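Contributing new records

If you add data, match the layout below exactly. Sequence lines come first and carry their own label; structure lines follow with theirs. Keep one chain per record. Anything else will be rejected by the validation script.
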Amino acid sequence: MHPSRPPQTGSRRVAVLGAGSWGTTFAKVLADAGSDVALWARRPELALEIAQSKRNSDYLPGVNLPRNLWASDDVAEVLDGVDAVFISVPSQSLRQNLADVHDVFPRNAIVVSLMKGVERGSRFRMSEVIGQGLQLDPAQVAVISGPNLALEIAREEPTATVVSSESIDTATLIAMMAGTRYLHSFVNTDVIGTEFGGVLKNLIAVAIGIVDGVGYGENTKASIITRGLVEMTDFAVAYGAKAETLSGLAGLGDLIATCESPLSRNNTAGRLLGQGYGFAEVIAQMNQTAEGLASVAPILELALAKGVEMPIVSQVAEVLAGTMDPRDIAPHLAFTEEPQREK
């Protein structure tokens, strides 16, 4: 047994893989909701700090973690005997992480994606990668997405999120497991819309960051947010999502939070681009993953496959490639000077 593992209380046992800001925050949520929570950290020194000091000073400075949350760098120990596994690792490393833990993964556990990305190459959503990597029935998989900036939730500021699964029973169970006085969960079965909402808003947030870095004002940002929601909805619906999902917490709600907050990694990355830093320089300055940067290319490939026009995301791609001056990004005016009917 891990030396800092607390005595079991008899409540539900869950694991969280990934001890970054969001993984640690959601581990806190689950512990506050009454579960015994095991958190896997890749770095032994981080696992030791969380287990012994109940702090994660790298990612959540000043936040005290619950006593019924412990951590280890031994993934087999973390996964032992758990009923549910919540995964919060960089999207582009998910498939390899699943391969690494496949042999010790609890086969009957519900698996929940906390990630917001699309896999490069395959262009699969994270729930699809999980289903493939662990050979799971879709009813055993759920996703969580919404206006959920990690540090605000870790500070117990009230917010809401969406839990989605093809099985409403699975979604409801996970929502109950994550219910606290400061986080309320809504449920749906629109996994496609919920997941794509979380991915696409990151791309719009990069665009907002770019124009913010350039120095443009609120008119420009409001135009991009509004037209960005149209792009998000057109894209998601083309892939089978419900339009109303994109107008809810997992779409519009997440879009507003991510575009407006300096805590947003994607907004920060865009702001650095707008200030004239190159892509490599932005990556070097970020101490956490900005998923939007990795998702631009696969999203545009998916949009092309369905004939969906995404002028905002396309211009973000040009800025990332260095083929467009950030000052020229005005995608709400793109492609035509003729009047267009708003939808």
